[in-house]
Amino acid sequence: MPLLFPNLRISQVFGANTDVGKTLLTTALVRSSVARYAQSSSDEAGPSKRVFYLKPVSTGQDDESDVSYVERNTGRYGSSVSTRNLFQYREPMSPHLAAQLAPDLPFPKSNDELIRGVETYTRECLAELKGSRGALYVETAGGVHSPALHPPHTQSTSLLPLRLPSILIASPHLGGISTTLASYESLHLRGYHISAVLCLDHPYYRNHEFLADYFGERGIKFWDVPPPPEKEGTVREDRARLGEWYDRIQAPGEGAAEVAEWLDREHQERIGRLEGMPERTLKSVWWPFTQHGLVNKKEDVMVIDSAHGDNFDAYYTKPPVKASSSLVETDAASTESLLKPYFDGSASWFTQSHGHANTDLTLAAAHAAGRYGHVLFPSGTHEPALNLAEKLKETVGKGWAERVFYSDNGSTGTEVALKMALRAAGRRYGWDGERGGEVGVIGLRGGYHGDTIGSMDATEASAFNKAVDWYKGRGHWFSPPIVQFINGTPTISTTGPDHWPAPPSSGFTPAPDGWQTTFKSIQAVYDLGSRTASPLADYYRSYIRSSFEGLVKEGRKFGAVMMEPTCLGAGGMLFVDPLFQACLIEVVRSSGDLFGGAEHKGRGYEGEMSALDGRDPGEWQGLPIIYDEVFSGLHRFGYNSASSVLSHTPDISVYAKILTGGLLPLSATLASTSIFSAFLSEHKVDALLHGHSYTANPVGCAVALKAVEIVEAHERAGGWVEEKKGWGVGLEGEEGRWSFWGEDWVGRVSKREGVRGVMAMGTVCAIELEDGQGGYESHRALSFLTALRRTIITSPDEAFAPFQIHSRPLGNVVYIITSLFTQPEVMRAMERTIEEELGRA
Questions:
Q1: What is the 3-state secondary structure (H, E, C) of 775-835?
Q2: How does pLDDT run across 327-360, given as a tens digit for each residue?
Q3: Are 136 and 123 contacting, i.e. CB atoms less than 8 angstroms apart?
Q4: Cβ atoms within 10 Å, residue 525
Q5: Are 827 and 740 in contact (CB under 8 A)?
Q6: How confident is the model at residue 609 (pLDDT cuts 50, 70, 90)?
Q7: What is the pLDDT of residue 87?
Q8: Residue 597 has pLDDT above 60, yes or no
Q9: Comparing C-alpha atoms, which of 36, 53, 259, 55 is closest to residue 133?
Q10: What domains does the chain contain, in order, with CATH numbers?
């Protein structure tokens, strides 16, 4: 977790390499801080006003260790200086090798355990300070990329979650400018804040002269320090001369003293900025999807200082906190960090999947930015865009997609999809261009396809679009049957204002909006191989076909079907009966006579569904089918593409959000051969005249390709095996639906008082709370999430650092979304806490 305390300033010290004077200068800073605190007090620095030194990992003999060196050269300050070494290994070599040669010595089970060791020592320091001011210096081992105890991580990556302001000790040696700049760029690229750079003078190489200008241009404080005396004479004489040198550089106005003063001042300025950001934000920012009349106090504003893994590190002006059943109580408020880790339950608004600050994605972005920046794309190409297009065709577009069109985000991606589909339908049915008239789309109530004018018109009137003056809903929207666990049982219920006919057979019971029916397991719900020949499938087909006939009789004209497969995200996390969506596609594709007139009768395919629908995947039938997988695709729900769930491939599909692993905006719209052909001619005006200045941005494409490769590698390594087993999937190679959230837990929560239903798939869990008002305008979920956010979740066995949960509500629906790599221990802890909070609600 991030460590930021009002009275304890923490600085982490990195070296550009070994033998650059890192411990020498860290000792100088320790001494300077002690002297500074003593001078700022009316009496000498007592035991409650302290400076601390921590070496997380050290190699070499005890009497030659860095801790021993610091103790020898700060001995005159007595108890004002405390030192600690977390893990000491005898062999003077790389930490991971030294640890292997000492199996009898303590060894952390993971790099996270090392992080928790630093956190624990920090809290011990706070307790010793008893509210007084102090400083802690954390000195790393070797260079910036010295191996962590658990390869292949290096210490710059493994220590990143602490987000400690850092000091870089430059190299004064031959080649030191290069190693220093490489070290700085590595730290900067990983999101470290560099508080200062120090360099020992070398009278011959004079690296400090170049480095002073380099870091000065970047606004980074730089100090050069006179070199220590050469060793000569007795040990006692050497130590005396060294002590005189330390006294000289820590004297008022000298380098070490100035650095210590600057570090304290910067620490206070950082806290001041955090405290001032809520008020500044309330005066300057217009938030999306936010009623500013309800969020108008500083206490309501979450200041995100950084993010890592599943969490972002946030500051609240007055953080209300209560204990969960497993919370370890602390003795004093001063031991609480101003920054708290909050599990990003909204997955940063549906975009996050690979964990915040993922190093592989960061490096991919930096490489593409350094190689290309941004370059125009029409009639050109570059490797990131080309390789990503081929990868998407091979994976989510396998067997049906011919072309990939890039745009900026999900909304523009769906705009492109609509343009593609409407042109293709208009060309075939003779109403394209200015002769088009009123043409609508077919979709689902609760669907959401973005906030641009065109994408809004492709959805029913709702809280998202009805207040927009230009909105004009263009289409017909079915109220889809919804899948939930209700009272512990997988259940399908009809919803919305549709007038559903009487249920097809026994086993259906009346419900407020029609009927509902239960299943023995969630796998049975998604087993379309057996359900497609059921009476319910015939019922769906008949209902959908008769609805189309009535609409056409009214003179309605349609040019596309647009749907979010599997789950309607922003509309309330509504999991749609897959059989209904499959039957909708089937009927649309066999109804060319309705959408295009009698001359098109028979252009649809006949017969039952088969694997991937048994048609020529390059030729659309009836109407073009658009899968809006902006939210749901790319493993969000445990599958790559909904084609594998619905047994139908689309004609057009749209991907965004987690396409780049949550790092950058990018969208890809995939199209089949017949869709692309509708724009193919020798006339420019027939082209798809749509584009964006940042189309196929190389940085976004490179990151997206890396994000896909990371997931593929995880799958090849047997990823998600345990999660699948929890839902009875993957045994003996069988496929099925699964989730990071436990199936038993989902069923149990659905029985809770005040819970209408629960559903989970992949990374997503949605809990619908009972509420008379319901819908997006309800405040029921907000009240629950506000209470949940106040609870600190801890691990009795320290499997993870304490955190809280943050998420945004969807009316009366509470949703929590994990990443694709959330730890099982974190999942179980969140499940327990959510269940406890439901018991209090």
A1: CCCCCHHHHHHHHHHCEEECCCCCCCCCEEEECCCECCEEEEECCCCCCHHHHHHHHHHHH
A2: 333 344 457 899 999 999 999 999 999 999 999 9
A3: no
A4: 20
A5: yes
A6: very low
A7: 86
A8: yes
A9: 36
A10: 8-273 (3.40.50.300), 359-715 (3.40.640.10), 725-840 (3.90.1150.10)
